[in-house]
Write a structure and sequence with these properties.
This protein has 262 residues and is an alpha+beta fold. The chain contains 6 helices and 11 strands.
Length: 262
């Protein structure tokens, strides 16, 4: 059964150029993506009709960043986060503080669906957001145990060390050419105009297996499990079309014989 979920690709300007992305490391004992560095996110709660609200809540709980309609003092953010992590409902806490979440700070970027071979499956929307002025993200020391700000290129170079899952690798690959936050949000707007779920399918290979993305030439013929094929001329159908696992690192590669640039 698929559960709706949302993740936030939190961004800030790079130290020298481009952008940096915030990643959190999940506990090794976690039942989903244990030990991996991921974007803050999680499953939709009851009553969250807008997945941007889910994304904002998860960003607050996991990273301590509050996307509100007004500026918030850092001390208040920390206090509210401690209380919500201790079990108090966020909507009530925000009402008490006279604050309101601002979903418009989040821009749609991608839609990933867990392959049907996995026992736990999510239909997850990924959103991009700027780090609000005056706020500093941090791991919660409950579900997450470490953090990192990295440029997309630096994160990809350390994909094995960070145990990056395929959705993170692909998203970072798509962000790697962005020279500024404005370019990221222009890219997000273009992607939102042509949304399509990315549902990988598993296919055997001589060395093991591959996860085929919806525009891979063998997606329909060699892939197994649920599928959501994408036309080869779709705006999102660019770049490498599959993942292979080598030395515990997900490698984003082109299909054999493909002329697609990596």
């Amino acid at each position: 059964m698929l559960r709706d979920a949302a993740s936030v690709i939190l961004l800030r300007p790079g130290a020298e150029a481009g952008v940096e992305v915030f990643l959190l490391r999940r506990r090794k004992s976690a039942t989903f993506m244990g030990g991996a560095y991921v974007f803050p996110g999680g499953a939709r709660d009851e009553g969250e009709d807008d997945l941007r609200v889910t994304a904002a809540r998860e960003l607050f709980e996991e990273a301590g960043v509050l996307l509100a309609t007004t500026a918030v003092e850092r001390e208040l953010v920390a206090t509210l986060r401690r209380r919500t992590l201790d079990g108090e409902p966020l909507p009530a806490l925000l009402a008490e503080a006279g604050l309101t979440l601002d979903p418009d700070r989040l821009a749609y970027f991608a839609h990933w669906i867990t392959p049907s071979i996995e026992p736990r499956r999510f239909s997850a929307r990924f959103f991009v957001a700027r780090l609000p002025a005056g706020q500093a993200p941090s791991f919660d020391d409950r579900e997450t145990v470490d953090e990192a700000w990295l440029s997309p290129a630096a994160a990809l170079a350390r994909a094995g060390e960070r145990a990056l899952p395929p959705p993170q690798v692909r998203s970072l690959w798509e962000l790697a050419t962005a020279a500024s936050l404005d370019e990221v949000f222009a890219l997000a707007a273009a992607r939102a105009a042509h949304p399509h779920p990315i549902l990988p399918r598993m296919a055997p290979t001589p060395g093991g297996f591959a996860l085929l993305l919806p525009w891979d030439p063998e997606y329909a013929t060699a892939g197994t499990g649920d599928g959501a094929p994408m036309p080869v001329d779709h705006p999102l159908a660019v770049g490498p079309s599959r993942f292979i696992l080598e030395e515990r690192t997900w490698k984003h590669v082109a299909a054999p014989g493909s002329t697609t640039a990596g």
